[in-house]
Amino acid sequence: MKIYVRSEESVTVIDKSKKDWEMNGRKGTAYKAICHMKKGDEVSVDEVRITEEVYRTMKPMTRYFLSGDLDVKNGRFEVDEAVEDKTTK
What we know:
The protein is mainly beta. It has one domain: CATH 2.40.50.660. It is about 5% helix and about 65% strand. It has one helix at about 50-55; strands at about 1-5, 10-25, 25-40, 40-50, 60-70, 75-85. It has a five-stranded mixed barrel. A hairpin with a 2-residue loop joins strand 3 (about 25-40) and strand 4 (about 40-50).
């Protein structure tokens, strides 16, 4: 089952990565964004899967609201839309 989710607060994308992979005769490319979020005294840095389209449009050190699909079975979240947060600098 997949659930569509959207972040309530913007997160800072520190950097993004693109890595080719091969497993059991299959090939592909994994796109990821390294995100930073601070809420009060709590700080977290997470690596999030993103689509190729989001990879092309994202700029490092920029705040975004993220939305995408959460795969409940595999516990995976993949961002398919990133909207730049224009309210904070």
